[in-house]
């Protein structure tokens, strides 16, 4: 075999080897991307919501880009601009101030996921986040944020207590019970029904200014009345429930200030057994960074 034929043969062999290697690498990359996409699609909405909140701590934007719609995202936190980019643009700042998110409870109701967490964000905060999903993507977000109080009237913290979701088969029943309680008692439509919603004085309270039991609630309201502090619920905007946990989102006033009320109730044997809340004063409209409103 002459040298020119041998050179051509070696060249062809090398070329075939390079093509084969390139094909294998391409297959590996395609398979890797396919596996990553499959992992994302298999995540539950609860997991996606928690992953987005963890981004506030890590500063990484991947979960935000993967799980929040780039086209439809409606933001109701009035300190953020509307759209996904408003959140992405805040991640570096949130990380720089040492933001931490400790998730306590997550409940899911249809396309809504509500997360109850303790934040470290310029001091400790009690927070509720609610995410609405469409086709596996977050398209809307609401929240309520309140500074935590450590010296509480009941001795319970604002976030401790029961976490286990039970009685999923009673979700609709518990949801109706709590919504009726808010309307009858908190909105004042049928206040005489107050005691029917509780098992005597057995009631665990996590509002930092109110002691346990209906007796604790009565004393707090009496003391507030003496100080001229009034609390009024005007409208229920959202109810999110899973099993024994029911979260209501309401609008009203506290001490004359326009207020957003997030109340989480735990139901046991058809009675309200435990309560957490986060209250936030709604700023005047000229201070809003988006026009979507708090609700």
Account of the protein in words:
By secondary structure, the protein is an alpha+beta fold. 34% of the residues lie in helices and 31% in strands. The protein folds into 2 domains: 42-149, Nuclear Transport Factor 2, Chain: A; 168-285, Roll (Nuclear Transport Factor 2, Chain: A). It has helices at 3-42, 45-58, 62-67, 84-88, 91-96, 171-186, 213-226, and strands at residues 74-75, 100-109, 112-120, 124-134, 137-147, 204-205, 231-242, 245-254, 257-268, 271-281. The strands form 2 sheets. The chain has a 5-stranded mixed beta sheet with strand order 1-5-4-3-2, with helices on one face. A 5-stranded mixed beta sheet has the order 6-10-9-8-7, covered by helices on one side. It is globular and about 50 Å long. The protein starts with a helix and ends in a 14-residue tail after the last strand. Residues 1-22 form the signal peptide.
